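Appendix B: complex inputs.
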Amino acid sequence: AQRVTQPEKLLSVFKGAPVELKCNYSYSGSPELFWYVQYSRQRLQLLLRHISRESIKGFTADLNKGETSFHLKKPFAQEEDSAMYYCALEELGNEKLTFGTGTRLTIIP
Amino acid sequence: EPEVTQTPSHQVTQMGQEVILRCVPISNHLYFYWYRQILGQKVEFLVSFYNNEISEKSEIFDDQFSVERPDGSNFTLKIRSTKLEDSAMYFCASRRRTGGGDEQFFGPGTRLTVL
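Resulting structure:
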């Protein structure tokens, strides 16, 4: 069965410092990987997906199949980045998202 | 920008009662989902729905749960006889198509409290 691990429940980073939110997965096939973000009192929304290889709000994530990782990175944290971040996996040919437990990111001014 | 909506935002019920959680997916979407998140735990898949039938369900989605799309716009989740452990945040999601990294759009959630 597929599994998504986010080892850090909480992460605090100073404004302007680099951010890295870790995500590891276990899945035997070719996964589709996503990062969802939930700002305070708002709904889950897609931040980025590995298939599009884009940068959103300064965040990037690279799929490393050798290390089975999809870490989320941003070179310079901003206060508005404070939120809950969820890594999620979708199996090829399947529909459901398997989520990690999430990391609460707090940016210290 | 169109959004998935859910009602009510908070539902309190007594153990053993039936509840219906309602969702209005984005209008041109064809695939619909329910997820739940027990406080402090991860978001878990419950069920997916396409072409008026369940396409996949998790082991959580037992006989107490059912889904339907009664009128072509609403998508409902019914829990027949609620248990204390059904207390959770329930999220509805929809998407246009599957595959190709297509995004699932989430609703704001319904917080269900079973007393």
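The mean pLDDT of chain A is 92.
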